[in-house]
Design brief:
The complex is a heterodimer. Helix content of chain A is 34%, strand content 24%. In chain A, helix 8 packs parallel to helix 10, helix 10 runs antiparallel to helix 13 and helix 19 packs parallel to helix 20. In chain B, 23% of the residues lie in helices and 24% in strands. Chain B is globular, with a radius of gyration of 16 Å. The chains are: A alpha+beta, B alpha/beta. At the A-B interface, helix 8, helix 10 and strand 16 of A face helix 1, strand 2 and strand 6 of B.
Chain lengths: 772, 232
Amino acid sequence: MPNFSIAQIKAEGLTENEYQMICDRLGREPNKAELGMFGVMWSEHCCYKNSRPLLKQFPTTGDRILVGPGENAGVVKITDDIAVCFKIESHNRPSAVEPYQGATTGVGGILRDIFTMGARPVAILNSLRFGELSDPWVRSRVSGIVSGIAGYGNCTGVPTIGGEVYFDKAYNRNPLVNAMAIGILETKEIVKSGAAGIGNPVLYVGSTTGRDGIKGASFASAELSDKSQSDRPAVQVGDPFLGKLLIEACLEAFKTGAVVAAQDMGAAGLTCSTSEMAAKGGVGVILDLDKVPAREQGMSAYEYLLSESQERMLFVAQKGREAELIEIFHRWGLHAVVAGEIISEQIVRILHKGEIVVDLPASALADNTPLYHRELADTPEYAKQAWAWQDSDLSYSENYQEILLKLLASPAIASKSWIFKQYDHQVQNNTVLLPGSGDAAVIRLRSQDFGVGEANLSAELPLIGLAATVDCNARYVYLDPYEGAKLAVAEAARNLSCVGAEPLAVTDNLNFGSPETATGYWQLHEACRGIAEACRELSTPVTGGNVSLYNETLNPNGGSQAIYPTPVIGMVGIVNDIQKICGQGWQNVGDVIYLIGSDRTSLGATEYLAVIENQVTGRPTPLDYDLERRVQQVCRFGIHQGWIKSAHDCAEGGLSVAISESSISGNLAAQIQLKNLRADSDALITWQNLLFGEGASRIVVSVSESDRPAWEKYLQNELPNNYWELGFVKDSESNLDIVINNRSVISLSLAELAHPYNNAISQWFTKDLPTA
Amino acid sequence: MKFGVIVFPGSNCDRDIVMATNQVLHQPTRMIWHQETDISDIDVVVIPGGFSYGDYLRCGAIARFAPVMQAVKDHAAAGKYVLGICNGFQVLTEAGLLPGALVRNQGLSFICDRLPLKLERKDLVWTNQYQPQQIVTLPIAHGEGCYYADSETLAELEANDQVVWRYCDAKGNITAESNPNGSVNNIAGICNIKGNVLGMMPHPERAVDLNLGSTDGKTLFSSVISSIMAIA
């Protein structure tokens, strides 16, 4: 008679087969607490059992990569003196059920990953996906999630400098919340998580342990249903004030040199931190739960071990120096206790009320975990149908002006200022490009490694900076996961180049449906193949990331609806001189406007098709790596020379939307003369395609008339057949005029353009509408 | 002359002030732990923005009981200079060094933006390098920046010319539309009657470096530096 029923095993998120694997590894059956530990450690969130074989193909090394995947966050070298730590993580399921706490702890968790490495967090970005704003349930998630992100970042004093937000019914009951954080290393050595030193004390520091967030990692690895709301206890509760204190105390503690290893308690709390630290260090750990500060009475070992209470860390300290560390935490008003010890036997042994309640090989929890190699199915029917779609399937409207205004009012394209104005994006005094003003965020990299006492800062303010972006057009990925994933990587790199930064490295967040369905696995497999290839081609290695599978909503009738496959690409790039960057808005009347890059566009998979024609079909235009690299190089060089005054990637909505956005952002109009860009021998394309078609490797730039000769000479050499002069910048009283073959197709004032663009999102939150 | 920046648990603009006073304006600056009581080396005390003590209970309500605050009160009583920015302004009202209170923004949400402000007092040590009635643009970032005072206090404030900054439109008109948070009389910053204590919601320390877009806030720090230098 087994210790547990099938239902009990399932309740821990494990299969019967996995239960058998546990018994095989242990040579016995687990007890309740042990089973719970396996449940969270063997969840997709912790052990990547479905995605590991696919993640292996990512390039992870490079000249500047100091730490790749496997640690709490990746680290890249910027200069001999500056290293930057960054990572992205999802908090999708908790945010669906309890939006404020779900999002706020998502930010808290990713900040901990950064400062655990010895880095001071200097920026936050986020990538959000919501359903349709007309749905009150969706609106309540938007408000809750945005204020949750604001709540943590604003209070800890880490600026939220950028991000992306999309709205699509594919996310109606399954919003995505991916938070990325960036830090500057303040310690001489990067703090790692592998435990070492037999006999060294294990310190528990930070906040107390309670019953919140129990089994959050397993919850995060299951589908959502109408019963998920009852899983609210699986959602963690954040305290950003304690988070801020923990940042300061941990960085101070690391600088003493007395910390051997550190791991934050995020997913799977004490279970994950003890087993991962032990497994990575090839040692064992004993932990006494009676020493752990608790915020509630009568907690069982199971509850202690599976709690995901926030703002907690586990340290291995040098023996004899624990008092020094404890003093620092007490000064910051935080708990710090010796709760265990490192042992040579490679086991995780947990004591509770004087008894051994857990006795497990560390590797069984953290290394020797299940791995599922799944069969790749043929291209699914939905994709084959989409790929058969042709531009000629459309009956075209010629009301271009109305189409443009509708696209500007599409929440996916419209201004996100209602959202980013709720985030403190300037604290720390390093934000060079404000949200919404450029294709990527830019901050100055300035040491803030000082504290109480006399200040003695260098009189020179550094000019070195960092650009960062998060990107993914999930509709492209849905319609063609391989090509769409490549396009997401390329767009992230292009966005960095548009501000003048050199792309450096990637952190990725793979948000997908169930890998157990043929289509779900095909999407995951193909997208990973695309990411791996594009990261290799564009020399941007992956330093880590996060996998969130089973993003599906179960209907009461048993059906399941997956989200669009959404592999979010977070990318950072170097800005050698923050005075040589540019934003997306026109700068000066009379500047000449060019399109550089590709003339290949399609209406397939576009925002135009989705918003105007209400169709999600077609196939995104394929990426040409060589052209992509060249156009980005040209853009960066033009910015560094001071020729380019504004640069903006042509993304959703195509050329006409990019031009409109540069006009709105710069508060200057433009005169644009379009003709068929393609060579005479090519087939003519429709004007809709010219105006609204989407394609990769396309950047709209403006250049001073006086720099035209030098700029065009350079273009002749570098992009001889891939640039087109489109027109010039006009004053703010003029209309944006777009003319094709001498026929005016668009003539709109800046106010007419800005109105739908600025109000499309905020209108849903400023008037009294019913809420869910 | 020397600046002192108070560090409460939860302060998060403390290092930004030090960047302004020490790195940009090259003045000696000391970061002061909230439990210190001797600040006699300091000429200008700055209480920075952030979320002191998590802003639990009420913004600034716990900070006023910190040991350092008695020294700050004595400093102010001696006629020396105290500047409270954002959370620091909230602390000053809670501590009774400035009248009125800061309550939740009218729109309920946190607001981060850069807004025009009109200078109402150019005769103060804090502002004497600005032009009279100058319109400047400074960053704001707060959830509870709606200035409130009862009608009697408000009348006194106005009668004594204690309003230093008001939110305005780009042309300097004081309008309802240009008021971001519902503050009475568009008040963004006030001083005490003597003018040595200034509290303001906007962040002058975030506008001291042209690489970040504006130096409108630098003038405030250079005003107080030159005033004190002149006295010394």
